[in-house]
Amino acid sequence: MRIAQVAPLCESVPPLRYGGTERVVSYLTEELVRLGHEVTLFASGDSVTSAKLVPGCPRALWHEPSCREELPHHVRLMELVFADASRFDLIHFHVDSVQFPLLRRVACRSVTTLHGRLDLPDLQPLFEEFSEIPVVSISDNQRLPIPGANWQGTVLHGMPRDVHTFREQPGSYLAFLGRISPEKRLDRAIEIARLSGRKLKVAARIYKGERDYVKETIEPLLEKYASFVEFIGEVGGRDKDEFLGNAEALLFPIDWPEPFGLVMIEALACGTPVIAWPCGSVPEVIEDGVSGYIVDSIDDAVDAVRRVQWLDRRACRRAFESRFDATRMANDYLRIYRRQLQSGPHEAAKGLRHAGPSRTPVHPHERLRTVRPHSQLLGTMPASVPRGIARSEAESGEIAPNEVEPV
Length: 407
Hints:
Shape: globular
Oligomer: single chain
CATH class of the largest domain: Alpha Beta
Number of strands: 15
Largest sheet: 7 strands, parallel
Distance between the termini: 7 Å
CATH architecture of the largest domain: 3-Layer(aba) Sandwich
């Protein structure tokens, strides 16, 4: 199957440190290549992949000092993708909704995985307008605010089995990993560590938009409790593996409808149980009393810390292997791809692309949706944009072998 994966340009694929969406796109892309599919990855030019890389920009935007606006780069990325959509049997988007209007105009088979929260009021009119676009959720809870979308299925994230190392004997600290923001509730994690008498290690990223919150709320806590709270900053690769694997438990005290929470399965892959609030996807990922504890209050979390020693870390690893490996994720997506190939492009795109000039309008805003003929689209990358580095993660041993026939 000829498959295009379209990733955000904010981080490289995979990211060096933080970047859940780009990391999942990398895991999926490499697994599809390993299964024998012809995959093209649209991503930043510093991405590393065994697929064919089409760079949408030379360098990940969040690491490009000259970048002030992300949207122009993603609009240009759509031009690269849609310049000749017939190259692909299916296009898989991971870039929110910027492609939705174009999918109405170009008859191509596609799916869009929605990686973010969907409970924001601004999204309601968008999905009412584009109700025909096929979309995929990353948890069942994620789709609740928009039940009328054209849901093709839920695909829980997965990752290669050998990315993280199982450790049966943990250290004596609690871990917090993610970004520092009000909804991630690092303040809760600090209070849990204080009341349970444990050391807390914090590996986190600080976004520009959250600096005021960090300065006003988090920095005073870090200074006050410096005797048992250690701020490490962002971690990746081997450092991340050791950080999660040596923790007694991962604290996930979120206060928002988390669409998935990749760090939870990263912890499980290390054998580290998770103590989490029952928000968003958490009950779909963590089995209470087996791979961690689901709690409703700080007092319950402190009690869970005291009981975490009785959980079997091997059971945490088994939960990861049985439910969250990359092959399962890829096969789930392949089933959705096949359904799309059987059903064909949606009727709205067919009508807009193939109807003649005198056609009856199929939408009240028809005139606003007229675009250039497909043959006139510009799809050539400037020669100055580097191609990036292509490397097979399979060759480096980062993808576990699995006997699955390509489709």
